[in-house]
Amino acid sequence: MKFTNDGQKISFNYQDKIGGCVTYFPIRDDQTLVIEQVFVNPALRGQGMAQQLMIEMLNFAKQQNKKIYPLCPYARAYLKKHLEYQALIENHSEAEVQKEREKSNGSK
Question: How much helix, strand and coil, in percent to the nearest 5, is found in the chain?
C-alpha cells in the first residue's frame, strides 16, 4: 500500500478515491503533531487499514523527532494498546490543543 503525506494528512487511495487517511496539525512551534482523525472507507473497515495508517503516522512523527497528541478517540485507544509508542505521546488537555490550533490558524 502506498501512502502519501501532504503535510496535513497521510492517506492512501482505493479505487481512485481516498481509501483512508489520518489528519493531523502541528502545535507547540511544530514540535507536537495532533492526530485529529483516523478515517477508513467503510468498504475497507475491519481489515487493519486504520492500524496501518497509525503506524505510518507514528513512524512519520519519529522520523521528524516530533511528539504526538492523540485527539482522535481511535488514536487514543490504539496508543493505549501499543505501549511501544508511549515515548512519542505529549500530554495536553483538549482545551490546550484547541487554543494552540486557534493560535496557529490565526498566524496564517
Answer: 45, 30, 25
